[in-house]
Amino acid sequence: AEEYFSPGQKGSSAMPHKRNPVLTENLTGLARMVRSMALPAMENVALWHERDISHSSVERMIGPDATVTLDFALSRLTSVVDKLLVYPENMLKNMNKFRGLVHSQRVMLALTQAGLSREDSYRLVQRNAMKVWEQGADFLEELLADKEVTAALPEAEIREKFDLGYHTKHVDTIFRRVFGEA
Questions:
Q1: Which of 103, 91, 98 is nearest to 137 (CA)?
Q2: What is the per-residue burial (b if ≥16 Cβ within 10 Å, else e) of 136-150?
Q3: Pairwise CA distance, residues 125 & 129, whole Å
Q4: Is the separation of the CB atoms in 33 and 69 below 8 Å?
Q5: 17-41 b/e with 16+ CB inside 10 Å = b?
Q6: CA atoms of 144 and 79, how far apart (whole Å)
Q7: What DSSP assignment string belongs to the chain?
Q8: Which residues of 77-104 are buried (b: 16+ CB within 10 A; e: fewer)?
Q9: What's the average model confidence in pLDDT over 97-107?
Q10: What is the C-alpha to C-alpha distance for residues 143 and 55, in angstroms, rounded to an integer?
Q11: What is the tens place of the pLDDT at every residue in 136-176?
Q12: pLDDT in tens, 6-28
């Protein structure tokens, strides 16, 4: 995914090939500013029953500054999300660079649920994962060829642990909760 980059827009001043995410970099800085206002607000809490001018002067500053900054940041973030460029094929390609290793935790948990100790489950999964790192092997194929793994889990269950849909099954619900009914 990347921030929208308009035709002719400049990215890095030193490297013309870069497409710096200037809007989200700016949002990071604005978030720091809003967060920096939390400390004086919290310091005001300590003496609510004994207020003096130091309290109201803080509130007169952070009240408008924090809300205006936050309003601007939220408006900018809305624009970034609206124009966000998403490349699902690249995402999948990047995930596949690890030849299935992203599923190691689910396999390990399945082994423990099948009755193996956590230590043994970890050892079996790690043994096969290291072949991916060191030899460029395919994690699923290594697990299916490992007699200790297949003695604990049937092939169908191992394959099921490699289903990416498991990790995205609640995406629509989450979007409805965040953005409301469409």
A1: 98
A2: ebbbbebbeebeebe
A3: 6
A4: yes
A5: eeeebeeeeebeebeeeeeebeeee
A6: 46
A7: -B----TT----SS-TT----HHHHHHHHHHHHHHHTHHHHHHHHTTGGG--HHHHHHHHHHHHHHHHHHHHHHHHHHHHHHH-B--HHHHHHHHHTTTTGGGHHHHHHHHHHTT--HHHHHHHHHHHHHHHHHH---HHHHHHH-HHHHHHS-HHHHHHTT-THHHHTTHHHHHHHHH---
A8: eeebeeeeeeeeeeeeeeeeeebbbebb
A9: 92
A10: 63
A11: 999 999 999 999 999 999 999 999 999 989 988 999 999 89
A12: 888 877 778 888 888 889 999 99
Residue 2, beta-bridge partner list = 85
Task: Compute the C-alpha angle 49/35/57, nearest 5°.
Answer: 40
Residue 119: the pLDDT is: 94
> pTM above the 0.70 mark?
no
